[in-house]
Amino acid sequence: MKNISVIFILxxxxxxxxxxxxxxxxxxxxxxxxxxxxxxxxxxEEIFRAGTILAIPNEDELNGVSFEAPKSxxxxxVEMKNDRGNPFFSKLPKVSFKPNTxxxxxxxxxxxxILLAGEIRDDLYLQLSKxxxxxxxxxxxxxxxxxxxLEKYICYEPKRQGRRKLYNCLSNGSxxxxxxxxxxxxxxxxxxxxxxxxxxxxxDYIKCEExxxxxxxxxxxxxxxxxxxxxxxxxxxxxxxxxxxxxxKQNNITYLFTSIGSEDKGTANQSLLKLTDDKSSIENLExxxxxxxGNEVYSSELGTIExxxxxxxxxxxxxxxTIKTNDHCFSFExxxxxxxxxxxxxxxxxxxxxxxxxxxxxxxxxxxxxxxxI
Length: 374
Fold this sequence. Notes:
Largest sheet: 10 strands, antiparallel
Order of helices and strands: EEEHHEEEHEHEEEEEEEEE
Number of strands: 16
Number of helices: 4
Strand content: 25-35%
Shape: globular
């Protein structure tokens, strides 16, 4: 479940010829008030931060399907209900349905869960972004306060013995030859220090620790908050992934597709978008996706992604492309939006037969890129 980021967009869903008014989802992902124009000077990271590729079950695919919210959800729902100031409290949907629940009602529940998960993840993304900036600023402040002490105790290399590097200190636990925190001062034993210098080192270590201690408390508070928000964000994703995986097991239809982005730390072959210098065309669109049978890398450069339309400097910005697998044809029809969440290509996923002629079901797609730091 780690490999996708479930953050969703405007969905207009029609069901069995009836206009399903309560299935039209509105999300804060597309807010004209926060959009900015994309210009040639705009720069973004080539690696996608995250990707969401998801098909919505058709009503007739939900015959006999049921879903019961996992026990692992309980603590998050309790927290949400107890925190009545939580903006998502009033939106908490019914998340379970029985085999004899109407298919229309099942589909409505599924889409409401998708919407709530997307809103929660977006809200937490902004909170985490601010928190990471606060952590970086605090690290900088700590460094400025303690660096005069750290800089006095850098190991150096007075001479070589053949190919061996001989340093003037022995380290007890620290992997760095340059102190990164006050405890590193204490961990170093300098082989060429006089008793007076060792005494001064001990005094500097104590002073450094006294300065660092209050910052460490504040840093731990920020790290604990970050850990909690990351856990909440993973839960929001699991609301969708748990539900769709359960449905997939019952009707043997794949709805949840996995795309690898930079949020999926430690994974190789992350998805990317590389443009020409003038941003007029795509050099390579590469997506690491699982369409239900294991991840594969699809690439416009290699011809496994067909670019149908691309324009990023005009309004509207468009990225439309097609991927063919052994049993389906997937059409992606997206528009580019530059918001406080970064650059997003959001739109429709259309699942077709192998000949790309007959639509089987529709879904949503969203590909996210970080704005490059100046």
